[in-house]
Specification:
Chain B: InterPro entries: Cyt_c_oxidase_su4_prok. The complex is a heterotrimer. By secondary structure, chain A is mainly α. Chain A has 15 helices and no strands. Chain A has a domain of 153 residues. Chain B is built from three helices and no strands. In chain B, helix 1 runs antiparallel to helix 2 and helix 2 runs antiparallel to helix 3. The N and C termini of chain B lie far apart (37 Å). Chain C is mainly α. Chain C has a single domain, classed as Four Helix Bundle (Hemerythrin (Met), subunit A) (Up-down Bundle), CATH 1.20.120.80. The chains are: A mainly alpha, B mainly alpha, C mainly alpha. At the B-C interface, helix 1, helix 2 and helix 3 of B face helix 1, helix 3 and helix 6 of C.
Chain lengths: 454, 79, 178
């Protein structure tokens, strides 16, 4: 750690990992609801569980991005963060808001209150005061990071990172638009969600990945920067109009079917470029960095993002296909592998890279961390396959044969049981990861001595 | 090829395809018009965009353009 | 040619080629989709297409390739003054293209033809509309470059303009003639 204020990242990463644990445990609970439909139905209905699962995911990923920014911006800009106090204030606002959301929804507090209660929406569902808090926290963050970057050295990595983070924060303002018309509500919802995960977040992902490659492989900055700009251009070119692939069946005009199909098919290109980038850098690299686990997570991130977001996304993005598969378990399969590959693995990569220096330790815990990578990734990939098969069967029974929804769900039971099993592996992997980065002070396996061959 | 010669070729090819359109329809017409468009696209790529000086990239673009034109001709002829 | 090179490197900025390839992929996919959709209703598509005036579009082809020629000459120009006039000429021809195109759209609007009339018209408005947006952008870019023509900016502007040209020579026969 070259700069004192990089330490801010530690608080962000710890909170992020705590929420990660909450997210996967709630996910596992939901996995059981799929197996036994009445489980917890009186206490915590499925829609609340799903809200907790997806919102805690989004919040912890964002906290990870903020932490990553606080960690890498000082090194890139070659100066301390503008104001550590503001950074901690920002985190406090986020934690308070998250608690507010969870309590409000779990116990349905302040029902009907404009400021404090639920909005009654399927998504972007936070009380207004929390939304306002998110905006305030985002403004604090942007001010803090932008001031640091403006006063220091400007690099391609900080340029693209700032572009992504500014876009991310500004797009969230659409969360305040809440038309009574449900189709319009959905339309604006995608301005936030799609333009996040298939636009601005990709810029954040590319720049963090570029930072990791720069540090881990020692490839020249010039080479890394050229890739980074190309990836950012490809992501925006395909991603912005790719929003159309959410407008097939919600009441928006028919031309979205073609705009969405064509542009979103191209969304696979930036993810392929990121995978190619990561592998080419490793092959070209001359540096033998001791943090092998961070390298494993980085390569795993780029690869699984390509398959989860790229290939599994393309699988059902053409409107002729999506007419049948829309909202089936195919979507769930894509969602899980895409978020895991692109953004979960990315955050775990930067956490794995940064933690040893944040905690003032040598790079020890490689074996446990790498084991957690294979356990968690294996679990998510297995889950993706079971859900893909479930979705294929569901599409045929429900959309082609026209059987009733719940009758089909009964026939998918075996897939849900297997998915629950893979969920157990993911939770164990996540717990192992958190243990591996936080606890051990020495390597669990003593390295063997190289003996001369006889 | 110089850019001026390329321009003359492009104008001549454009007049040829317009002339074809005046003469009538049919499968042969479809194929000829698409072949003329193919030739125009090659001239723009090679001369205006300068690919004639970079043989490696020129081959790649030619291949992509060729696949696209074959797909178009195929789709237009079966109809 | 001034930009001739034997190094095997693409002329100009890499980013321009990323853009050119992306645009070609989008328009190429759109044109193939149009021909594929045509197969589902040949009579309907033929009937819709017969309302188009191919003569105006054919004139526009000549206008655009001529404009491209002026832009290519501007890249080769030695003095900035000559480059400036060539760029202005190229963007004026771009305006001519837009004028003819505008007349075509006005005629369609007068006939009451819209996005919803028939799938052919949806493709027509999407493909030509997206292309026209690029022509507008190209005219603006060439105008900006003409203010103070430097070799690098002139080349980038001309490359964008040639891409617009290339898309049109492929789009024109597929939408208007076949």
């Amino acid at each position: 750690m070259k700069y004192q204020t990089q330490k801010i990242a530690l608080a962000y990463f710890v909170v992020a990992m705590a929420l990660f644990a909450v997210q996967v445990i709630v996910g596992l609970t939901m996995g059981w609801v799929y197996v036994d439909g009445n489980f917890l139905s009186g206490l915590l209905p499925f829609n609340i569980l799903r809200m907790l699962h997806s919102n805690s995911l989004i919040v912890w990923l964002l906290l990870g991005f903020f932490g990553a920014a606080y960690y890498l911006v000082p090194e890139e800009s070659e100066r301390e963060i503008h104001s550590p106090t503001l950074a901690y204030l920002q985190l406090a606002i986020f934690v308070l808001g998250t608690l507010g959301v969870v309590l409000t929804y779990t116990f349905n507090l302040f029902e009907g209150n404009w400021l404090l209660g639920k909005e009654g929406r399927e998504f972007l569902e936070q009380p207004k005061w929390v939304k306002a808090g998110i905006v305030v926290a985002a403004l604090i963050f942007l001010f803090n990071i932008s001031m640091t970057v403006l006063k220091g050295r400007k690099t391609a990595i900080t340029n693209i990172l700032l572009l992504g983070l500014w876009g991310l924060a500004l797009l969230f303002l659409f969360a305040f638009v809440n038309p009574a018309n449900l189709a319009l509500d959905k339309m604006y919802w995608w301005y936030v969600v799609h333009l996040w995960v298939e636009g601005t977040w990709e810029l954040v992902m590319a720049s963090i990945l570029a930072f990791l490659m720069l540090k881990l492989t020692g490839v020249d900055r010039e080479v890394v920067e050229k890739w980074l700009y190309v990836i950012a251009a490809l992501a925006l070119f395909s991603g912005i109009l790719g929003t159309g692939h959410h407008y097939y069946w919600i009441g928006t005009p028919g031309y979205w079917q073609w705009i969405g199909s064509i542009f979103s098919s191209l969304e696979v290109v930036p993810f392929f470029a990121m995978m190619a980038f990561a592998f080419v850098m490793v092959w070209k690299g001359r540096r033998d960095h001791p943090n092998k686990a961070a390298l494993l997570w980085s390569l795993g991130c780029a690869t699984l993002a390509f398959f989860g977001a790229g290939v599994w996304g393309f699988l059902h993005t053409l409107h002729g296909v999506n007419f049948y598969t829309h909202g089936t378990q195919i979507t769930a399969a894509h969602g899980h592998l895409a978020f895991y590959g692109a953004y979960v693995a990315l955050n775990l990569a930067i956490i794995t890279y940064a933690m040893p220096s944040l905690l003032g330790r040598d790079v020890f815990n490689q074996v446990l961390n790498m084991a957690s990578f294979w356990l968690m990734s294996g679990g998510v990939v297995f889950m993706t396959f079971t859900l893909t098969f479930a979705g294929t069967v569901q599409t045929h029974l429900q959309r082609v044969n026209g059987e009733a929804y719940m009758d089909v769900q009964d026939q998918l039971w075996i897939f849900y049981v297997m998915r629950f099993g893979s969920g157990v592996a993911v939770v164990l992997g996540a717990v192992l990861f958190i243990y591996a980065v936080m606890v051990p002070r020495r390597e669990v396996i003593t390295p063997g001595h190289a003996e001369p061959a006889e | 090829m110089s850019v001026t010669k390329a321009w003359l070729v492009l104008v001549a090819l454009s007049l040829a395809s317009t002339g074809m359109a005046a003469m009538g329809q049919g499968r042969l017409f479809v194929v000829v018009v698409l072949l003329l468009a193919w030739a125009k696209a090659r001239v723009v790529l090679d001369v205006y965009l300068g690919l004639q000086h970079v043989p490696g990239w020129r081959r790649g673009f030619s291949l992509g353009l060729g696949a696209f034109m074959v797909a178009l001709i195929g789709l237009s002829v079966v109809g | 040619m001034s930009r001739a090179q034997a190094s095997g490197q693409l002329p100009g900025e890499v980013m321009m080629w990323v853009l050119i390839l992306s645009e070609l992929a989008v328009f190429g996919a759109g044109l193939v989709a149009l021909r594929a959709a045509w197969l589902t209703d040949p009579e309907g598509f033929d009937a819709a297409q017969s309302h188009l005036n191919a003569a105006g579009a054919a004139v526009n082809t000549v206008v655009l390739v001529s404009s491209g020629w002026l832009a290519a000459l501007a890249v080769e120009a030695r003095e900035a003054v000559r480059a400036r006039w060539l760029l202005i000429g190229a963007s004026v021809l771009g305006l001519v293209f837009l004028f003819i195109k505008g007349a075509e759209y006005a005629a369609k609007a007068a006939e009451g033809i819209s996005f919803e009339t028939h799938p052919f018209w949806m493709f027509y408005y999407l493909l030509t509309g997206f292309h026209v947006a690029h022509v507008v952008a190209g005219v603006v870019i060439l105008g900006f470059v003409a203010v103070r023509p430097a070799p690098a900016t002139t080349e980038a502007g001309a490359q964008f303009w040639h891409m617009v040209d290339l898309v049109w020579v492929l789009l024109f026969p597929v939408v208007y003639l076949l």
